[in-house]
Amino acid sequence: MGLIRILLAICVVAGHSSLILGLPFLDAGAAVKAFFVISGFYMALILDRKYDGRTPGGRRLFWSNRFLRIYPPYLATLLFALLFYAAACWYLHRPADRFEYWIQAWQEGHYAAFIPLLFSQFSVIGLDLTPAFGFSHAQGFTLLNAGMLTDTVQAWRFNMLPHAWSISVELLFYLIAPWLCRWGKRGLLGLVLITIGMKGMAGWFLPVQLAEALVYHFMPFQIGYFALGILAYQWRGKLVPSIEYRAISGAAWGLLIGGVVFGGLAITGRSNMRELAPLLMAIGAPSIFALSRNWHFDRMIGELSYSLYLLHVPCKWVLSAVHGSAVKDAVVISGSELLVVSVVASIGMYFVVERPIDRWRERRIQASGVSRGVDAQTQR
To answer: Which domain, by its residues, includes 174?
Structure first.
């Protein structure tokens, strides 16, 4: 599934810049939700074939290896972001963008929020909740509501890597994955339905701004997507051999690829694809995995998807500076230009950071004696 992973990452790049090759790629939010489905599928796979999630030792190995997969690239990107903003402050002779918010909050005495904010920047945990808060000079940090002051900004502007909220969601899922992946089909389907119900109730009972922020970012509202991926894995044995399923999954993948490349405009409209894309992903995942599981090239390009997702935002800052802009979104960055620069940076991240650590992760598994010699795709 490496090809679809890299295409989804490209959708996010396009969503944060402009059209790539003139194509209106799938909405970035829909692409992220589809990523969650893939993550659910893969975690169910590796916990079934690679780690023993039923034992404390197996869970510790799973968690530590996921830590080694997620944190080093994130910390490298965070370090780059901090250095970039420090250089911007030096060049402008004033606090730049996010640094300015941090300094203002400190000067105005809003000290209580600094511990969780700092913790979230370096641990990633909590970045999915930050968008639910607003910050104003008078009120400090408060939950979003209709009575906010006019100078209120959303607190995600304090995050050095604001798009990393989805990584916080992923990490929280990993914490419960050893147990969640052992749930039966009825329990998982029930969890999907509960998540859908929660989203509807949020719109009824919460202020509009708060409901939108929570439904889009907060982990409890995303858990249903992971459950869809786990269901897809559990059903794979019955589905993949079926001729009828192959026809259905082929149609699903045709719609999904069409939605990725053409933004869903020819299907249901871009906004509706936010929920349709994850569903199509779950329907087609077993067949596409069975087809691509031993394709070396597919796995190779898929390995770049995480670093591409991480690095495209800092690369956008660099391109903005190159184009002479010191103000966020003051210039429209070419999606094609951003994609090329981000891919080059991702290749560098892969060889310098990810590849050596991935080899170490595999040695840890082999040394533990739990490796079952599964196919290449489980090396994710």
So the answer is: 2-379
Q: For the whole model, what pTM was predicted?
A: 0.90
Please count the structural domains in the chain.
1
- The dihedral over CA atoms of 310, 316, 322, 326, expressed in degrees to the nearest 10, equals -110
Distances (CA, A) of 218 to 117, 177, 231, 259, 312: 16, 17, 22, 25, 22
Tens digit of pLDDT for each residue in 6-47?
A: 989 998 998 888 878 777 778 888 899 999 999 999 999 999
